[in-house]
Amino acid sequence: MNIHHLVPSVSRWLLSMGFLMLAAGHASGADLSKFKRIEPQFIAALGDPAATSGNGAQAWGFWNQDPGPRACKLDHYSQLKATGVAPAQWKFDASDWWLEEHGLIMEKPTFPLAAGKYLVTGDREVTTVLTVHPKDKNGNQRWELADGATLYDVTHLGCRSARYTPAKAADACSPANAPTKGFPVNPGAAMPAVNGCHKQDYTVLIVVGLPVTH
């Protein structure tokens, strides 16, 4: 999910046009005086692409920086396994590892996504406010998008990510079993299955603004 390769328009958008011009053209209904521009961050989300709101945000993750440039190539897995730490200094977890669309092993997002408001986009036509509510008494977190936007509207189709966990034996789910061909994964397509693993594909949202009081 290297934003420098996949979404160069986001960087141009933020740096050359400015945050207010960006949002004025794309974020109808959002009070932008309440948001500050940030370097892009990323949300790993689950949900119906056609939904404008839903439950389960406690299962969503968050990267506070682009994990793509910090990722490791699959053919470097032996070194990653030996040290347990990537060159970018994140720790590899053999029981819970992630791949991105170029076939790179990337660091896990942090869980859960904090309650609050996020200005999100899919780098297509829609930029709007995502509200993540605090957990209720059952531990569920609701989420909702403003302006009638759907999860699909704010999904960056080029960013693909999947979480791999053991299907049975813990040592059977390994990046060593991942395919080496078929990358990069086509925008919107599913990530590849890996023998011995349970796979969960996640939708990726780009966060371009946070509340000024955040």
Notes on the protein architecture:
The chain has 214 residues and is of the alpha+beta class. The chain has one domain. It is built from four helices and eleven strands. It has helices at 3-6, 8-17, 19-26, 77-83; strands at residues 35-45, 53-54, 61-63, 72-73, 97-100, 104-106, 116-121, 127-132, 143-145, 161-166, 197-211. Strands 1, 2, 3, 4, 5, 6, 7, 8, 9, 10 and 11 form an eleven-stranded antiparallel sheet that branches. The longest helix is centred in the first third of the chain and has 10 residues, at 8-17. It is globular, with a radius of gyration of 17 Å. 36% of the residues are buried.
Structure at a glance:
This protein is of the alpha+beta class and 214 residues long.
Give the secondary structure arrangement, pairings included:
Blueprint: H1 3-6, H2 8-17, H3 19-26, E1 35-45, E2 53-54, E3 61-63, E4 72-73, H4 77-83, E5 97-100, E6 104-106, E7 116-121, E8 127-132, E9 143-145, E10 161-166, E11 197-211
Antiparallel strand pairs: 1-3, 1-11, 2-9, 4-6, 5-6, 5-10, 7-8, 7-11, 8-9, 10-11
Uncertain residue segments: 4-25
Number of helices: 4
How big is the Rg?
Answer: 17 Å
Instruction: Give helix % range.
Output: 10-25%
Biggest sheet character: 11 strands, antiparallel
Number of domains: 1
In quaternary terms, these chains amount to single chain
Q: How do the helices and strands follow one another from N- to C-terminus?
A: HHHEEEEHEEEEEEE
Number of strands: 11
